[in-house]
Design brief:
Number of helices: 5
Pfam family, one: DUF488-N3i
Strand order of the largest sheet: 1-3-2
Distance between the termini: 10 Å
Protein name: DUF488 domain-containing protein
Strand content: 5-15%
InterPro entries: YeaO-like (IPR052552)
Number of strands: 3
Organism: Streptomyces cinerochromogenes
Shape: globular
Radius of gyration: 13 Å
């Protein structure tokens, strides 16, 4: 199983496999055709309230815990299961505009998909 996290602003690579944008908002200044996004499951992204709290100074550990709780909602859980099935079929690249991908929801998703 191959899951990786990349910034959406990096050019697509042949080994990206399924390219999934995991941000709720479309990245600024990026044309949709240039991004080559295969899926954009918005219900899999953190809520606006959680994002605002985290970017307002919340800790990553607490953010992660709250985000994992949000992923238990039926719509999010279904999307996560569908993404797990995609990972079993081939490489999946989670795309985010976050500058610190290792401290973002994309990293949390990648770890959950690797389990």
């Amino acid at each position: 199983m191959s899951v990786r996290v990349r910034r959406i602003y990096e050019p697509p690579e042949p080994d990206d496999g399924l390219r999934v944008l995991v941000d709720r908002l479309w990245p600024r200044g990026l044309a949709k055709d240039a991004a080559r996004v295969d899926e954009w499951p918005k219900d899999l992204t953190p809520s606006s309230e959680l994002r605002t709290w985290y970017h307002g100074g919340g800790s990553y550990e607490e953010f992660r815990s709250r985000y994992e709780q949000e992923l238990q909602a039926p719509e999010a859980a279904e999307l996560l299961d569908r993404l797990r099935k995609s990972v079993r079929k081939g490489p999946v690249t989670l795309l985010t505009a976050s500058k610190k991908a290792e401290e973002s929801h994309a990293h949390v998703l990648a770890e959950l998909l690797r389990d």
